[in-house]
Amino acid sequence: MRISEAASTSGLSIDTIRYYEKLDLLPKIARGSDGKRDFSAETVEWLILLSSLRETGMPMERMRYFAQLYQNQRGNETLSERKAILLDHAAHLEKRRTALDRCAEVLAYKLKRYDEMTEELS
User: Fold this and answer.
1) CA angle, 44 as apex, 27 and 14 as ends, to 5°?
2) pLDDT of residue 14
């Protein structure tokens, strides 16, 4: 599939995909006879993962390291390390989710209090 389709499917912009390719975050992308990128389904799945990791705050350097582990030629030797990286990120997300839930409760309380104060003024 062409880069525009990969962008549409992954939710990333074409510029971001090119940037990720430049940073070696992507596996080698085949080129068609016309010289244009030809994205495989596996590469698009990888783009979706990268998008999710970035959206949830994984630093680019950590993403690069994860991509290097994935792309090395040692096969599944790095599987446990890659899994550890994702488990660590999942734990980070859970902490963040807890903090956001707490903030949402504070805001909900404050909004309720403002509604009560507005009614008292009426």
Assistant:
1) 90
2) 96
| pLDDT of 46 strictly over 70 | yes
In this predicted model, what pLDDT tens digit does every residue of 110-120 receive, in sequence order? 999 999 999 98
Domains and CATH numbers, the chain: 3-71 (1.10.1660.10)
Are β-strands 37-38 and 30-31 bridged in parallel, bridged antiparallel, or unpaired? antiparallel
CA distance 85 to 105: 30
Dihedral, CA of residue 95, residue 91, residue 52 and residue 68, to nearest 10: 140
Per-residue pLDDT tens over the stretch 11-45: 999 999 999 999 999 988 999 899 999 999 999 99
Point out which residues pair with 31 in neighbouring strands.
37
Q: Within 10 A of 7 (CB to CB), how many other CB atoms are there?
A: 20
Give ∠ CA 92-98-102 in degrees, rounded to 5.
Answer: 145
Contact residues for 29 (Cβ-Cβ < 8 A; gap 6+)? 21, 37, 38, 39, 43
Can you tell me the distance from the alpha carbon of 71 to that of 26, in angstroms, rounded to the nearest whole number?
8
DSSP H/E element including 33: none
